[in-house]
Fold these 2 entries.
Entry 1:
Amino acid sequence: MPIRFEPRGERSTFWIYASPVLAIVLTVLGTGVIFRILGQPPMAAAYTFLVEPLVEENGLAALAVKAAPLIMMGAGLALSYRANVWNIGCEGQFIVGAICAGGLALAYPDAPFWLLYPAMIVAGALGGMITAGIVAFLNTELNVNEILSSLMFSYVAQFLLLYLVTGPWRDPHGLGFPQTAMFSDNATSPMLMEGTNLHLGCVVAPLAAIAVWILLSKSVLGFQLRVVGEAPRAARFVGFAERRLIWIALMVSGGLAGLAGMFEASGPIGQLTTNLSPGYGFTAVIVAFLGRLHPVGAIFGGLVLALSYLGGDAAQIDLGMPNAVTGIFQGILLFFLLACDILILFRVRVVSAPRARRQAAE
Amino acid sequence: MIFFLTAFLVSVMAAATPLLLAASGELVAERSGILNLGVEGMMLVGAVVGFAVGHRTGSTALGVGAAILGGMGLAAVFSFLTLNLLCNQIAAGLALTIFGRGFSSLMGAGYVGIAGPALPKLNIPVLSHVPLVGPVLFGQDALVYASFAILAAIAWFLYRTHAGLVVRAVGDSHDAAHALGYSVKGIRQLATLFGGAMAGLAGGYMSLAYSPLWAENMTAGRGWIALALVVFAAWRPARLLGGAYLFGGVMYLSLYVQGVGVPIPSPFVSSLPYLATVLVLAIISRDRRRIRLNQPACLGKSFHAVA
């Protein structure tokens, strides 16, 4: 084989930051190839997909709105994955958070804002935490793999939402659509800019990411989480309470997902519907990886992946392409991200065939 | 009563077959130490590719072949990422599922709502007319029989052949297998590709036999249930059969209950298979020692040959 990977012996600081950038560049090129196959001129399509959403009027506000849930969930997942706890059920925790907050909004539409809105925030976070709590209980008490159980609960949460919006909570004046009534003004997130959907959650999301970063890097708890993830045997010898750390990882990631669901339902959407989330919970996994499993990196990752949603919409409206292009873009991005990470630990050497043979013989 | 029982058994077999196919492939991959969480993505790609080719050519056989190749294509990407570039297997598997979803809904956009060719039932003469056992045992499509044959072949391969022993050795101790001169990477590549082929075949069964049409995300989590089945079976082929048919039964039951109008809201009934999966995992995994004894020791771990 003419290409060989030589261990660097240490992590390359340069490539830790450069590899996601390289991955994004490669993904854009790869998406161009797909546009080509679909019969679109690649350059023009790439412009529609990646640039147009940003230069449009209020494009940046739209980006921030899409990015808010992704940043919140991505930061929580970064913490969870660092501790080697693979919560991939954010989609379900997001939905249950939205359901709990939405339930309050629908039950007490006339309650004063200062009481109702904070209660909804708490309910949303609690909803996500309870959903993740079941996963934590199953894992710590019954040894159930958290990947499978958290994913299964995502399906169950979607069915629960479907039941509520087609059954007891359906809007009687909604012409039979699977949705609840619009939330009252007192149950709606404060809007920050006239003429846009920029809501309170767009500010809370980066703050939450920074808070998670402080928890992870500046506290003893964060240290324990990182040790459990990187050297579980060492953590066991030192006597860190592994079960407690699994609980914490799931509470943080689940709580943030529930919060994201609450902000989404009470902000840009303003009601509960079956299409509450275009797969934010799964995209958040990519956000966490794009952000190098660093909570603050999730801010950057969230913005990039928010653009892929806006780009998918733009490609659908302007070019008549199916918006599944978004999913392809996201999948390819994660492929390239993982692939480029080899550059952090290994040096790529192109070895001429005779030399490779000589070295192999030695 | 006999009518009902026959219909029940035939439907359960149809529901169980894709689970059995996908889970048997994943079982072999896991026995070699590869944890591929991309089963759902590979199934979706198999389903859409199989349907597209079957619809274009009108041949279900070509469709099934294409589905297998589709699953293998995605598995090849996984194999390159985890075995050549030493990526985290969990992350690479998730990437496979995310990509498979996007790819299949993009490629399948033009096929939604079109009826495709359906895999014919074999209906063996005379025997398939025997009451009760006839339709169940002799009136199925070829893939149902194939799923049994493949599972038996896997059991024989893993426990009765030298090559199977090597696969298990690689999964249990890649260092020892490497020291003995076996190519850990090569064996895992083959096992991963086999897992992909089976997941693709399972997807093809969904879109060419189970419900001969294409719908977005039509596998509906079956790939994940197949992953859970491997744990349920404690990585043993014989127990996989029971698990797949148990879940086939649960899936059929959730459809049946909705059909006869039992006064339970249908979303609750639809979530039954997913809740059952968690329940079964809880019962099986509770015994930590048994999981540790049965699980391949190197499952999910990367291997980089130093020398």
Entry 2:
Amino acid sequence: MDQGQGAGNLVERARQGDQEAWAALYTSVYARLVAFAHRRLGNADLARDAVSETMARAVTKIDAYVGEDEGFAPWLFGICRHVVVDIQRQTYRPLPPGLLRSDVDDPGPAEIVLDSEEQAQVRAAFARLDPDERELLELRVVGGLSSAEVAAALGKQPGTIRMAQMRALGRLRTFLEEASRVG
Amino acid sequence: MWVEGGDIHDELLDQLGGVLAPPEDLALDPTAAELDALAAAVAARWPDGAAGPSAAAAADAPGASPAPPESPIRPFRSGGRRHLRRLGSGAWRAGSVAAGLVLVSASAAAAANGGVPLPRPVRVVAYSVGLPVDSPALDDTNQHIKVLKDAVKAQDKPKAEATVRRLQTDLTKVPADEQKEAVPKVEAAIAVAADKGMIQSPAPTTATTMPPAPPTTATTEPAPSTTATTAEEKQKEKEKPAATTTTTEKTKSTEPEPTTTTTSPEGSGNPSGSSGDGGSIGTDPSATTTTTAPPDTTTTTSPPPEETTTTTTAPESTTTTTEPAPQPQSEPASVQANRRNLMAQR
């Protein structure tokens, strides 16, 4: 959150319907939300739609939000997660079996060619994680949220998130080790 | 791949950030259209603009830009249209029902005033809901009077005799309040037919039974009408020597309803049981007609009369009650009463 806009005040103004406060909140979190949505949806247009819908829902549900500016971005990410799931349901089209990818995070041929060997290994290892682990790390890395903010976005305790993150990174490291041995 | 030194998890996170980074062409700032959409959503959420002390203070603060004008973009989360649609749906529904009622009432009133003849189903429904239309039985009677007149004009004796019998059947179904209108017409038509020699002698037109009252009044006053009609019948029967009428009053003091059993020698006691649809019209002069017994009444059958003047075509004795379906005489009175109650409830 952009502290220069008046920390602790933007959300309160937004609750009163202040257009400028809403624009400031939107701008401050837009890039991270779009990156996260793009990561989940794999499409720039859908990602932008998801962020717009996230803000629309935030405007509608702002009265339900309890907190200050610090917790607003995690709250938005929590909304965005549901919006992304809704879009995934709406845009899901069954593909022929030959074209089905085992996982949305599997690297495609172009990505493999363009990536360095090390990045390819990390991408492949990341694809082997569980979906919950991937989402947690995406919120952490792509969304730029702290462990506490990820906990707020996912509705869990910060300690639980820290432990889950450690397990996910540990497994990721294991997968990378396996890949380096094979390579 | 080994990560050595420092917090290996932090380094992994950094490495993961490089891999999962969004493409460079992905926009990092909202476009003007997206900001307009947000402004429209905010304007829809707070139609009166920024409210509250904090917003007012923020708006008055130095350097604060004025609130942007309301976006022309229609908010896509507005519930107003949904309310309007729901309201419109209800209004349309109520309006349609009202228009239908007005239409039916107007057409029924026109028909009642002699304007347009109603189809029988419409008449049945209109009469059932209490609209001011003639009962279906009276309508049948009027139609059969026309048929009788036509038969007399055409010198069609069999048809005239059959129509006379059908008229007598119709009269048994005409409600009491309409019999004053129907009986003179039928008597006049039969008298004309008798004068022309189409039938042997004018048949008595006294209705021997009371048809079920209209549904709107059947549950309220079924007994008085029956009793009154029975008295009228007795009065009329005394005036008509051609008909032999035997009336049995209620058998016990505990039975509230009188039972009328009538035997007529000249075809008056052989209703077809149908609503004038040309059903069984064979007449057996010696047959007896048993009227429908009200609840808790006893139905008796009088012996056949000696005088028979109507030629019969059906060998079997035809016994018919005022119920829609002919009931055997052996049917218990309680069953008949239940059936009558069911009919009245409709």
